[in-house]
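INTERNAL AUDIT FORM
Audit reference: QA-55
Scope: verify that the stored structure record matches its stored sequence.
Auditor: D.O.
Record contents follow.
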Amino acid sequence: MRRAPKGGGFLVLAALLALAALAGHYLLAPMPTGEPVIVEVPAGAGARQIGTILQRAGVIRQGLAFSWLVRLQGQDLRLQAGEYRMVPGTAVSRVIEQLLRGDVLTHPLTIPEGLTVEQIAGLVEASGLGNRDQFLAAARNVELVRAFLPAGAPVPEPLEGYLFPDTYHFSRKTSEEVMVRTMVNRFAQAFPEQWRTRAAELGFSVHQLATLASIIEREARVAAERPVIAGVFHNRLRVGMKLQADPTVLYALGRTTGTVLYRDLEVDSPFNTYRHAGLPPGPIANFGVDALRAALFPAAVPYFYFVARNDGSHAFAETYRQHRANIARYQR
C-alpha cells in the first residue's frame, strides 16, 4: 500500500483554510449599493435572528456568517434593538458598529404652542411614537417640576404648562417617560436664570409666570399683540381686577375651543377667572417662548380691556365705557 506523500495533510488543511477564508470573504463582502431601507430589530432578538433580518432586507449577504462574526468578536449580546435606517453596500463592520451604538432612526414630533397636555398626548399617539395613556401617566410626575413650584403651591396635575412646544426627535423605542422629561428639560432651558430673576422682580414665581404666559398664549392670535395683552393682564393684576379671560373658562369646562356663553361664566372652578381674582392655580396650556417673553416684558399700555375683532385681532380700551362701545362694534 502506498503512503501519502509527506506533508500532504498540511496541504489539504491549508487548502481548506484558504477555501474557508475565500468563502468568509465572499459571505461578509458588502452587498451592491442600493437605496436606504428601514430595518426593525425587535427587542430580545439574538445575533442569528438579527442576521436573518438584515439578509432579508438586503443589507448583508449572509445572515449566518454575520452571526458567526459577532459571536467571535464577543459582541452578540451588545446589539441593540430599534428601528434603523441602513444602506445596502455598507461594510458589515459598519453595520455591526451601528447596531452596537444603537444609532436608531428618529422621527420629528412637532408640538405647537397652546396645546394642553391631553392634546399633546393625542399627538404622540397619532404619530405612532407612543401611547396616549402612558404619556399622560408620565406627565403626572410632579417631581419633574418641583423646583419650579413655590412652597405650598398647588401641584399641577398633570404637568400643564411645563411641556415646552418645540420640534423633538424621538425614536420608536423612546419611552413616554423620556419624552415628558425631554419636554420639561426644554422648558427649563427656555426659562434661564436671568428670566427667573425678572419674574421675581415682577413679584411672580416661575409657576405664576408660567400660568400668566399660558393665558397670553391662548388669548393672542396676532403675534404683535402678545405684549399688549400681557400689559392688560399686568394692569388688572396690579389693581386687583379679575382677569376675566375666556380661555380660563374653556379650560375649566374641559374644552379648548368654542364660544363662551354667559352661563359658562358661572362654572365653579378655581380656573374661572370671571369668578376668582388673581391667577388660576396653574397654567391652562403649554406656551411658547414668545408668550413667555411677553409675560416677562409686557408693553407699557394704559389698557384694562380688550375684545376680539372678527379677524382675530383685538380692540383695546382704557375704560369700561370704551370697552362696551368696542363690544357693540365688533360683536354684534
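Auditor finding: record pair retrieved intact. The two ends are 119 Å apart (CA to CA).
Action required: none
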